[in-house]
Amino acid sequence: MKSLVVGIVLAVSGSAADRWIEYRIGPFHVISNAGDKAAREKLNQIEQFRYALGTELGKIGMGKDGLVTVWPIDLVLFASQREYLAHAPGKPFIEGGSATLSAWTGDTALPREWLRALARLLIDENAGRMPDAIETALCDLFSTIKVNNTKVSLGAPLPEGELQKDRMRAWAKMQMLATLPDYSGKLRVYLNNMQQNGDEAVAVRNAFDLTPAKIEVQLDAYIRAGKFEAAPVGGEPLDPNRDFPEKVLDMAVVQGLFAELAAGGKNFPPDSARGLVEKDTRAALELAIKANPRWGEPHFRLAALETNSIGKIKDLKEAAALDPRNASYWQGLAEAQAAANLYDDAAKSWSQAEHAAADEAERARIHIAKMALDAARADFTEAEKKRRAEEAAHDLERVKRAAAAEVHAAEAAANARLNAGKGGYQKPVEWWDDPSGEKVEGKLTRVDCLNGPLRLTIQKDGGAAVKVAVRDLKKLTVNGANEARFGCGVAKPARKIRLVYEAKPDAKLGTLGDVLVVEFP
Fold first, then answer.
1. What is the per-residue pLDDT for 379?
2. Does any domain span residue 281?
3. What is the pTM of this model?
4. In which domain, by residue range, is 58 found?
């Protein structure tokens, strides 16, 4: 009978171990076989963590719903260390096909490195870029969080030697600002200013009405005193036993999670959002956008496939808006805008890329690329100025031609009226039809007064210059005037002239012939 009881107990225990339950709130999913209490306590801890960090980052209240994540965060909570070690991902968080994945045990507190990684993830996906030292200090501060139901405290001392000297000083500064009453109520103002422009002097003045130097003096005294004590922070009003919906999971779902933990973020189910993006086709990328509308990467990859500049810019804007801390998205947008000659927009995108840079090396690289844009912008501006000037000249010439056409039309109409009733208008016979000879029309550009004859240089309309001789002005026929008069030298300005000449080349004079008839129209 005793062995039967033991067998029943073992069977129940084995059944319970295989019973996986999912608990949810916000972006967090705890999938656990570690029992109801352990799962609810872990979920409460990380939800209170999210709430407290969101408060300090200014993401709680005034219509703001708190910190969000691009992906759901699935924490697989194992009943034992042995089970956990069989599926341990090797680092706090890894990429899954449709979620960010993590794993731990139900009977052990979440380690500080895990909490630091959670803080980093939430900052990356919700806050504007701040200097790395400040973001790291904020992660170190929140690694000390303690949660007991709705009671939350922050800033407990770190073990000696856990952090290097510079990082320890940055943590001490953040701990001082978060826990001392003179500063704690204004920490969110300080962090908001740092997110906006990264200017420490502005942030310290606006938040604490001090200078950075004064803060550093007070920090030195605080570190020498060495009294780092945790301080209470406002917790989220929730009941872990009531506010976390639960659902029993099918083992096929759990086995799928195990498979993704084993993959270590290196391959994904083909129909998951990340699996679809790996296919890198337009159809797959559009499905990935539907699968996770908060993810910028599918939009960025669609832009690479787009040949239309308007469509490319649209996709890149979507990517940058969804992931504003991704400098490569902003740089891609800036380059696409510059290629479309949208230089004002490109300059703004380059500035966003600079602000989003993760470190000084990336920021310097982006700044150099931005300077190249400035040079291209100057060339484009000069070309546009020249183009507009040419267009204005063409427009002016068009107006002149139109006005001349109107004048000619008016003259023709007037002539028609004058000849009405006189047998109709007769087109006049061109003057050069008689006498016979070679005809030239152009501009008189020069008159050479030689010993007796004159040599005229005529620049033909649309042709080369022609030189002809006037042997005797008295024998020259002049149409429309009694006589022709010529001034020696270069004609200023050149006069319009029509003439007929007899082709008699004169090698000595360098002329083609002798002028018979001349007219100045």
1. 63
2. no
3. 0.70
4. 17-233
